């Protein structure tokens, strides 16, 4: 295994999109930021130097950080932010991990422009469990705001109202031509005929689940969230913020230009955001040929298409890559994920929108939870996060609780090292039933079940897939439905879990697990690095 060195200078840079220019926070002046390349079991060192006026932290989304929680990155959870002028060296090893993951800023809304891909190749000499692609291409889907994203979220927090939706989506940093800015070019993907490409697709958008399609071509899905899947064919990808999807693409035409497009999926659309990002797939001979457009981009609320995609995902579960689904469960948890409304004296409406897990709106601590845990500092968090809702009602029915108020708290749930967890995530029908992409740091989990309405333990548990459920780090909890996941708590530290729709995280849809040290020599969290930022 090798050591890979990267230097991330956090710098401002002017960028022009949608025919207007604004300064954005970038890594080394690039949007999207640099790709990190490594192999399974390599060690990665990233020196982050903060040259901007904002506090910064970087999260390596999906990297397990075995015993190195200090390098995980979420601000006030595993570290204090890197302040202006400061430096922090992220140091982690890719033990047993390969595939497509990504990195992003993990503080306020900085990740709008501070994100990039992580490509982990298998160990030297180890093939993919699918036909070897001729070439590979990273595709990052994202969102673009004409105004400053930090200003947008700060304004929303002040007013207690929902923030503006983005002005466009992007594919590898570009929206492509849109109504009010037809002149801008989209991303160009040059291909050769008769070849197989591996596309590494990442949804880095702040607040939008997306559909992704290429005119005239089909995909074979082979991996999600850096875990191999049973291959299946589809013409539409559905991907939530936080997720990655690897597909094989056969270039089975001889010439021409084909539209590549990303558009919003929203089960129950509230704020309509219809701006489709486009790019083009170019064969060598395109002289005089017009672009083949997509005649069938799914409408925004195509829940059926979304479901048929996610229901097709299964672990590869081969001899070499077995699905190790926990069978005996130590912690059986039931968490509601919901929005709420709390009183707010300074807000124009007298109230503010909040979000919660088990009716707890998470309050960010003053120093990181991991420091408080490691150094036994009391008064930072309590370890009484409820294992089931404290207020029980008909979650997805018409009978709602008498008010939508949530309780504030910095509460964590404690797990013994190597214990097994089953977690039912139940969306509620309150205020805005929405698909919530829930992301767990520090682990991959198995998605053993999913359904509409209220989870029914007697009936639904019987239908769980404990053989080849898909393994991932981010899963969509369906609007007005539930998702069941299982994982083994084999990584000591403090691990954040939150909705990857950034606005819901901001509103408090987040909590953390504390996993205690085990008894063996390799079962304890390592001590913090000496340059760990201070609050
Ligand atoms: Cu990709 Cu906690 O996030």
From TrEMBL:
Main localization (coarse):
secreted
**Does the keyword Transcription regulation feature in the UniProt annotation?**
no
| Annotated GO CC locations | apoplast
Q: What class of enzyme is it?
A: oxidoreductase
Q: Could you tell me which Gene3D superfamilies the record lists for this protein? A: Cupredoxins - blue copper proteins
Give an example GO biological process.
lignin catabolic process
Q: In its UniProt entry, what is this protein called?
A: Laccase
């Amino acid at each position: 295994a090798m050591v890979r060195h990267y230097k991330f200078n956090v710098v401002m840079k002017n960028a022009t999109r949608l025919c207007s220019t604004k300064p954005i926070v970038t890594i080394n002046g690039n949007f999207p930021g640099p790709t990190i390349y490594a192999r399974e079991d390599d060690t990665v060192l990233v020196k982050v130097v903060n040259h901007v006026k904002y506090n910064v932290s970087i999260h390596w989304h999906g990297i397990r950080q075995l015993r190195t929680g200090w390098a995980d990155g979420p601000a006030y959870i595993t570290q204090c932010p890197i302040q202006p002028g400061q430096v922090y060296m992220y140091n982690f090893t890719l033990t047993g991990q390969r595939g497509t993951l990504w990195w992003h800023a993990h503080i306020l809304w900085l990740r709008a422009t501070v994100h990039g891909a992580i490509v982990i190749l298998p160990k030297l000499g180890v093939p993919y469990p699918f036909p070897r692609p001729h070439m590979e291409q990273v595709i990052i889907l994202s969102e673009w705001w004409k105004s400053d994203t930090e200003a947008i979220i700060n304004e929303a927090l002040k007013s207690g109202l929902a923030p503006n939706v983005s002005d466009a989506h992007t594919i590898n940093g570009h929206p492509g031509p849109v109504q009010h800015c037809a002149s801008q070019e989209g991303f160009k993907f040059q291909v050769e005929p008769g070849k197989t490409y591996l596309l590494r697709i990442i949804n880095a958008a702040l607040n939008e689940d997306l559909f992704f399609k290429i005119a005239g071509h089909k995909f074979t899905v082979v991996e999600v969230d850096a875990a191999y899947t049973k291959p299946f064919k589809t013409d539409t990808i559905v991907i939530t913020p936080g997720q990655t999807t690897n597909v094989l693409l056969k270039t089975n035409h001889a010439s021409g230009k084909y539209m590549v497009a990303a558009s919003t999926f929203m089960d129950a659309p509230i704020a309509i955001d219809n701006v489709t990002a486009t790019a083009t797939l170019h064969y060598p001979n395109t002289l005089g040929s017009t672009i083949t457009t997509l005649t069938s981009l799914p409408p925004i609320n195509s829940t059926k298409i979304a479901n048929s995609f996610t229901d097709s995902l299964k672990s590869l579960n081969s001899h070499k890559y077995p699905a190790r689904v926990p069978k005996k469960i130590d912690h059986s948890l039931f968490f509601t994920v919901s929005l709420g409304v709390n009183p707010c004296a300074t807000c124009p409406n007298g109230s503010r929108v909040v979000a919660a897990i088990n009716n707890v709106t998470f309050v960010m601590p003053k120093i990181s939870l991991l420091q408080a845990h490691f150094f036994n500092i009391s008064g930072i968090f309590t370890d009484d996060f409820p294992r089931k809702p404290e207020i029980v009602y008909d979650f997805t029915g018409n009978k709602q609780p008498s008010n939508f108020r949530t309780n504030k708290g910095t509460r964590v749930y404690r797990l013994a090292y190597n214990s097994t967890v089953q977690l039912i995530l139940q969306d509620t029908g309150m205020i805005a039933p929405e698909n919530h992409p829930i992301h767990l740091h520090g682990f991959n989990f198995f998605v053993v079940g999913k359904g509409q309405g209220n989870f029914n333990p007697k009936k639904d548990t019987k239908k769980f897939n404990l053989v080849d459920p898909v393994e991932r780090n981010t899963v969509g909890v369906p609007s007005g439905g539930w998702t069941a996941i299982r994982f083994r708590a084999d990584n000591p530290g403090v691990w954040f879990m939150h909705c990857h729709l950034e606005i819901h995280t901001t509103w408090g849809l987040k909590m953390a697990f504390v996993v205690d040290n085990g008894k063996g020599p390799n079962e304890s969290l390592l001590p913090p690095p000496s340059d760990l930022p201070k609050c």
